[in-house]
Design a protein that fits this description.
Number of domains: 2
CATH class of the largest domain: Alpha Beta
CATH architecture of the largest domain: 3-Layer(aba) Sandwich
Structural class: alpha+beta
Distance between the termini: 53 Å
Largest sheet: 10 strands, mixed
CATH superfamily of the largest domain: CV3147-like domain
Strand content: 25-35%
Number of helices: 11
Shape: globular
Length: 414
C-alpha cells in the first residue's frame, strides 16, 4: 500500500529550465489552501441527476465496466494495458465506494482544474505487476497539493484497454466526475502523443507513483523531455506505474480533448456482447460502428516480442486464411500496433488504428496476448481528424517511429 507522505518531495528540475522558452502552457491556479483529494465513504452512491448546465449525467456502475473495458481494448490498437485487470480494478472501486458520474466536457467550468490519469509502462509487465490500488489516489493527492487547487474533473489520457478504466477507479474513490473523452481517440506509446500537446498543454507538473510507495514529481522543459525522464523513472520503478499529468483548465479541455470516446467504448462493448449472445457476426457489427474494414484474416505463425526501454516491442507474422490465403502479413508494434504489411508492402500505418480481433469470438487481442496459432481478423479504423494534420503526423506518423513509409489515410470502401 502507498503511504501518505507528510512532506512534498523536491521536484526534478532541468537546470536549463529558466532559460528555455516554454511552448506548453500550464493551468492557471490560485494558491489556495486545500486538504487534498479525499476518498468517499465506502458504499456511497453517486447522485443521479443533471450536470451543471442541465445536461443529464451518465451514471457508471460496476456492470458498465465489462463493456467499457472491452470497447477500450478495441480502440486501444493492441495497447493501453490488459483490459481485464483494469476492469477488475474499477469494479472493485465502484463496489466499495459507489458509482461514478460521467459527464460531457461541456459541463466543466472554464476555470475548473481537469487532470488526466493513466498507467504508464510496458503491457507485458502490467500483466504480472498488478497495482496495489492506492497508487492513483496518491498521485492525485500529490498533484492537487502541489498545484494548490482542487481537481474538479478527471480525464482519460488514452482510450485503450486498462487506461480506459483507470479514471473510474479514482472517480469512485473520490466522487470526482469523469469526462467522456480522452487525449487520443485510441492509444499511443509515448506521453507527448496526445491532442493536448497540439494545443500547447504541458505534461508537467506530473506525478509518478509505484506499488512500493515511491513517487516522483516532474517539471520538464517540454513534453518530449517529460517522456524521456518519466520513462527512466518507470523502468527503475519496475516497468509500470500510475501517473497524473497534463493538468489543464476546463476551457482548454474543451478545445483539446477527443470527445465521446468512453461512450463509444461502452457501445462497442455492448455490440460485441449482444452479437455473441445472438450468435451474430461480431466483427461486422463492430466495423459498422467504426467505419472500419477488414484488412486480412490469418493465423499467427510467429511472434517476436520483447520488453525493452520501457515498451513491449516487436512484430507478429501471419499466414492468410479464407479469402486471404496465399498471402503473408506482418504487424509491427511498440505497445500499440503501428504498421500492417501484406506481402512486405505497407497497408495501414499509424495514426490510423489497427486492431486484432479473435476470429471466433470478436474479442480484441492485445500485444501481450498474441500467441502462435491464434486465428485473427485484422481491421483498420480511421483515426481522429486531429492526427491527420501536419502537427499530428509529426507526433505519431510512421516517420516518427522510424518507418520509411509515407502516411496514406485509410478509408473503408463504401
Amino acid at each position: 500500500m502507498s503511504k501518505k507522505p507528510t512532506k512534498r518531495k523536491t521536484p526534478v528540475r532541468s537546470k536549463s529550465k529558466r532559460r528555455a522558452t516554454r511552448s506548453e502552457s500550464r493551468p492557471s491556479v490560485a494558491k489556495t489552501k486545500t486538504a487534498g483529494v479525499k476518498t468517499r465513504k465506502a458504499g456511497k452512491v453517486a447522485a443521479i441527476g443533471k450536470g451543471r448546465r442541465g445536461s443529464p449525467a451518465t451514471i457508471i456502475g460496476s456492470a458498465d465496466l465489462d463493456d467499457i473495458s472491452v470497447g477500450g481494448a478495441i480502440l486501444g490498437t493492441g495497447g493501453g494495458g490488459d483490459p481485464y485487470i483494469g476492469k477488475l480494478m474499477a469494479q472493485h472501486a465502484i463496489q466499495k465506494y459507489g458509482s461514478v458520474r460521467m459527464i460531457d466536457v461541456a459541463e466543466v467550468k472554464d476555470d475548473d482544474l481537469v487532470v488526466p490519469c493513466a498507467m504508464m509502462g510496458a503491457p507485458t509487465v502490467m500483466v504480472e505487476k498488478i497495482p496495489q490500488g492506492e497508487e492513483i489516489l496518491t498521485a492525485f493527492r500529490k498533484l492537487e497539493r502541489f498545484l494548490g487547487k482542487k481537481i474538479a474533473a478527471i480525464l482519460c489520457a488514452e482510450a485503450g484497454g486498462l487506461n480506459s478504466t483507470i479514471p473510474f477507479v479514482i472517480g469512485a474513490m473520490t466522487g470526482i466526475p469523469v469526462i467522456d473523452g480522452d487525449g487520443m481517440g485510441r492509444a499511443y506509446p509515448e506521453i507527448q502523443m496526445v491532442t493536448f500537446t497540439m494545443h500547447g498543454v504541458s505534461a508537467t507538473p506530473m506525478v509518478v507513483v509505484d506499488d512500493k510507495g515511491n513517487s516522483v514529481l516532474l517539471e520538464c522543459i517540454d513534453n518530449r523531455w517529460t517522456e524521456r525522464l518519466a520513462r527512466v523513472a518507470t523502468i527503475e520503478m519496475g516497468g509500470s506505474v500510475l501517473i497524473t499529468l497534463y493538468p489543464m483548465s476546463g476551457a482548454v479541455a474543451k478545445k483539446s480533448s477527443v470527445r465521446g470516446t468512453l461512450t463509444l467504448a461502452r457501445r462497442l462493448g455492448e455490440i460485441l456482447r449482444e452479437s455473441r449472445l445472438r450468435h451474430a457476426d461480431a466483427v461486422a457489427a463492430i466495423q459498422s460502428q467504426l467505419n472500419a474494414a477488414t484488412i486480412f484474416e490469418g493465423r499467427v505463425t510467429d511472434v517476436d516480442r520483447r520488453t525493452e526501454t520501457g515498451f513491449a516491442r516487436g512484430d507478429a507474422k501471419f499466414t492468410g486464411v479464407s479469402d486471404y490465403r496465399g498471402h503473408t502479413f506482418r504487424i509491427a508494434f511498440q505497445n500499440e500496433f503501428l504498421v500492417a504489411e501484406r506481402d512486405g508492402q505497407p497497408m495501414v500505418t499509424t495514426p490510423d488504428l489497427i486492431t486484432l480481433l479473435d476470429a471466433d469470438t470478436g474479442v480484441p487481442i492485445t500485444t501481450e496476448t498474441i500467441r502462435f496459432g491464434l486465428r485473427v481478423v485484422a481491421i483498420a479504423i480511421p483515426c481522429a481528424p486531429q492526427w491527420r494534420t501536419p502537427a499530428g503526423l509529426a507526433l505519431v506518423g510512421p516517420h516518427y517511429f522510424g518507418y520509411d513509409v509515407d502516411y496514406r489515410p485509410f478509408k473503408a470502401r463504401a
